[in-house]
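subagent[fold] <- orchestrator: predict structure for attached chain, return tokens only, no commentary.
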Amino acid sequence: MAKQGQGQEMYNLTRVCLLFLEAFNLMGKITLIGCGGVSSGEDAYKKIRAGTTLVQHYTTFAYGGPSLIPQMKVSSWCYSSFVLS
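subagent[fold] -> orchestrator:
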């Protein structure tokens, strides 16, 4: 799913924040929750690889409902298998 509008802006903003925390060597010293623009398993995987401990699916969950969780698990597993292979 292509991110548009506010979702893309939030995704970019949170990525900048993660880079800021990484620059000041704060990764692993505080718990980070990845949120903003997470609309797929690929997005969740990227947030986790960027240093978050947890990933929040708020708007996507509201629109997708409970069936979204297994879809995102499979999507993130497939993406991580592809990227790491």
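orchestrator: received. Logging for downstream: The chain has a mean pLDDT of 77. The first helix runs from residue 6 to 23.
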